[in-house]
Amino acid sequence: MRAALSPVPVRVRVHDAEPFPLTTQTTISGEAAAAGTLRSLLQARTGRQPALVASGAIRLHIEGGGTPESYRLVVGSAGISVIGHDAAGLFYGVQTLGQLVESAPGGWRVPAVEIDDFPRFAYRGVMLDVARHFFDVQTVTAVIDRAASLKLNHLHLHLTDDQGWRLAVESWPKLTEQGSASAVRGDRGGYYSKEDYRRIVEYAAERHMTVVPEIDMPGHTHAIGLAYPELVQDPALSPGMAAEIAQGRQPSPRKGVGYQGTAVGFSSLRIHDPRTYEFLHAVLAEVAEGTPGPFLHIGGDEALSTDAGDFAAFMQRASAIASSHGKVVVAWHEAGAVPGLVAGAVGQYWGSVNPADGADRKALAFVERGGRVILSPSDAIYLDMKYDADTPIGLDWANGPTSVRRSYEWEPSDVIRGLPEEAILGVEAPLWTETVSSLADIDHMMFPRVASAAEAAWSPATIENEWRTWGSFRQRIAGLGPLWKSMGIGFFRSPEVPWADSDRASAPPAGL
Question: Where in this chain does the record put each Beta-hexosaminidase bacterial type N-terminal domain (predicted)?
Fold first, then answer.
């Protein structure tokens, strides 16, 4: 069989038996939402939609009693059964079934297999930065579809930064009226109305994804000052940023003027002004109200122009405010240095696979206060890193370009010494958008490396499964190329991967 499966299932048993033939008479029965998902997937893959009937050859059902998000898939020559522990598990079983579809002389088929599968980590995420460059609702929903197909279940939206504020807040309307127009390079800005955000949240939920909104503070806040200048300090340049400005590599930030560069660390909220905390209460209340998921991200990274003591005082108050609105607080790992951070907060680690500068200790501090850690090692699964020196977009600050192989060859349990498996909430692959401005750019940078992150998040540890090797992974995603192409994903055809040619032409015109 063409073992083009990613993420790797927990158990796969291939049978020496006749495959299931997909024909124009193939039918689907069972749970309606999953059946609709499978119909769309098969239409994209094969060009035809099977009929929905009361008792079909492909049967989709939910049965309790298993691990959350788990499923069992059985394929025989006479039929296919997908059983999910819950709706999410059934959805993921359908995604695996879509990966198994292969062309054969005379038509399409699914090989005879049994698969039992469940996730390693509860949190499996991808982040989209919509602040450096803004992306409309249609683009965000396309990213949701792509991520969900790989069993990722959280979409972290980086909604605010120096370049723009992207979410409407009724109580502070100037945030979008005046703070949303700018973007990197002077490109088009924009923002999500409350209705836009609701559409994104609901679309994600239909695909078993939870939206995690981020309001980044106290740095990365220049755009707030475009709307409410009394809330922010004047820009403060580090020596390194001043040098970049002098050499013409970055524009100089000016208070009240939209920032179009990519430098970080020059902005800060006014830490000791009571009005700042009125702002936080109102904004976080509205964001929390519009977000049914449990998490609210409050940033906390790269606050280079905020005094260390002020940073600690601010993050303590900000985390308490976010928590008061009924949310689990998430913050970048720098906030782990704050002794008074609200108990139970989740730390997002963005240091390297080999921690430096105490980043690992800051991440562990979240666990010591009853929280857990999301792993986002920048030199492995930051999707905005170049593949190699010749990649036309992307950055290379995270220990140089990140090849597909490097994105795969890391193990979550090995990153932070002393971090127990149960303290790892999950894995998230961020896509920052300093150089990314279209869905085509997103596809190019996400695929195939997002599959590396999905496998680290879902599949067994590298020492527990014989398929969890680079040699296996490159072969498996090579076979996914035709599926990704049929889904409209403009993936990067990395020379590290022996890509399969499209197999659509091998199917007969009338075949399913």
Answer: 5-117
334 is catalytic: no
Long-range contacts of 382-390 (CB under 8 A, 24+ apart): 382/350, 382/429, 382/430, 382/431, 382/432, 383/126, 383/429, 383/430, 383/431, 383/445, 383/446, 383/449, 383/450, 383/453, 384/430, 384/431, 384/432, 384/433, 384/434, 384/435, 384/436, 384/445, 387/492, 387/494
365/361 Cα distance (integer angstroms)? 6
Which residue intervals of the chain bear CATH 3.30.379.10? Answer: 11-118
Instruction: Determine whether domain 123-458 maps to CATH 3.40.190.10.
Output: no
Where does CATH 3.20.20.80 sit in the chain? 123-458
Catalytic site residue from 177, 302, 409, 496? 302
Q: Are 182 and 259 in contact (CB under 8 A)?
A: yes
Are the C-beta atoms of 46 and 22 separated by less than 8 Å?
yes
297 beta partners: 214, 330
Encode the chain (512 residues) as per-residue pLDDT tens digits: 447 999 999 999 999 899 999 998 999 999 999 999 999 999 999 988 899 898 899 999 999 888 999 999 999 999 999 999 999 999 999 999 999 999 988 899 999 999 999 999 999 999 999 999 999 999 999 999 999 999 999 999 999 999 999 999 999 999 999 999 999 999 999 999 999 999 999 999 999 999 999 999 999 999 999 999 999 999 999 898 999 999 999 999 999 999 999 999 999 999 999 999 999 999 999 999 999 999 999 999 999 999 999 999 999 999 999 999 999 999 999 999 999 999 999 999 999 999 999 999 999 999 999 999 999 999 999 999 999 999 999 999 999 999 999 999 999 999 999 999 999 999 999 999 999 999 999 999 999 999 999 999 999 999 899 999 999 999 999 999 999 999 999 999 999 999 987 554 333 322 32
pTM of the model: 0.96
